[in-house]
Design a protein that fits this description.
Shape: elongated
Distance between the termini: 77 Å
Radius of gyration: 26 Å
Helix content: 25-40%
Low-confidence stretches: none
Number of helices: 2
Structural class: alpha+beta
Mean pLDDT: 87
Largest sheet: 5 strands, antiparallel
Strand content: 25-35%
Length: about 150
């Protein structure tokens, strides 16, 4: 079942249940043994692309917040079955996504970005209030007055 890249590559994978299995390999597949799993079951044969990493810049470096790769499992009977999909890693687990799922994910991330901008505005207000008290907290403004009294 060729992909739009019209690859003519094939790979032969030794399996424990079907012997040697020759499958078409998409151009985006890394072809590594972890995907093709020699000696494993035919149903476990997987094609996967290199990871696309989504990072953010922080004061402590550039962590990966989301990772995604193209994937296809040519012999799987479980959804999404034989068609290519995008596998997205979030919170330490991988989640298969169709193109519609990716669009919904991007809408959710946009909503999260909007919320972060709202929180940034609130932080500006808190910072300005802090600056207005000349770097002191309201309880520290009067050193003679003890907390709770």
């Amino acid at each position: 079942m060729p992909d739009q890249d019209n690859s003519s590559r094939t790979v032969t994978v030794p399996t424990c249940d079907h012997g040697l299995v020759t499958v078409w390999e998409p151009d985006w597949c890394t072809g590594s043994e972890t995907e093709h799993q020699p000696g494993g079951y035919r149903v476990d044969i997987t094609h996967a692309s290199p990871d696309y990493e989504f990072t953010v810049s922080t004061s402590r470096g550039t962590p990966v917040v989301l990772r995604a790769c193209f994937e296809q499992r040519p012999f799987s009977e479980r959804p999404p079955r034989h068609v290519p999909f995008m596998n997205v890693e979030m919170d330490g687990d991988w989640h298969p996504h169709s193109s519609d799922d990716l669009r919904r994910l991007s809408e959710s991330l946009t909503a999260h970005a909007d919320r972060l901008r709202e929180l940034a505005d609130r932080l500006d207000g808190l910072t300005n209030a802090f600056d207005a008290t000349k770097g002191t907290t309201p309880g520290a403004a009067n050193p003679k007055k003890k907390r709770g009294s």
